[in-house]
Every structure is written in structure tokens, then in C-alpha cells.
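Q: What residues go here?
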């Protein structure tokens, strides 16, 4: 049995997410597919002022059903390796 790398899985997930998002972007003008292309934005903004260090990070994750399908396909392809 081959040992699989977690970094490879993360790369597959990001590429699947990106591919699904690009397909959703291409299909946005099609009104019949609006259920698949409608996206939800998840935001996370950690920040701190520790007197000697201050940071403020904002992360926005945009998810839609096609990007989720891309990630599921990526996991399936990863398992087939």
C-alpha cells in the first residue's frame, strides 16, 4: 500500500475548488443553472494588538455547489492515485 502525501491532497482540493469556481463563473449567465452557480462567502478576520506586534488578516472563501463538486472530484481522483 502506498503512503499518500497530505500536501498532494491539499493541492488536489485547491485545484478542484478552483476548477469548480471557474466553471461556475463561466455558467453564471445561464439562468437555469443559478442554483449551481450561486455562491456563499465565508469571511474570517483575525486581528490582534499585542503591543509589540499588530496583525490584521482577512480571509474570504467563496463557495458554490460547482466548487464543492470540483473538490469532491479532486478527492475521488486523489484516491485513484
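A:
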Amino acid at each position: 500500500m502506498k503512503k499518500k502525501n497530505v500536501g498532494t491532497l491539499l493541492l488536489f482540493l485547491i485545484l478542484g475548488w478552483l476548477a469548480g469556481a471557474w466553471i461556475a463563473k463561466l455558467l453564471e449567465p445561464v439562468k437555469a443553472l443559478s442554483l449551481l452557480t450561486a455562491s456563499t462567502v465565508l469571511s474570517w478576520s483575525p486581528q490582534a494588538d499585542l503591543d509589540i506586534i499588530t496583525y490584521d488578516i482577512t480571509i474570504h472563501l467563496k463557495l458554490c455547489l460547482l466548487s464543492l463538486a470540483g473538490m469532491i472530484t479532486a478527492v475521488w481522483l486523489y484516491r485513484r492515485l
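A: Context that may help when evaluating the design: The first strand starts at residue 39 and ends at 44. The two ends are 11 Å apart (CA to CA).
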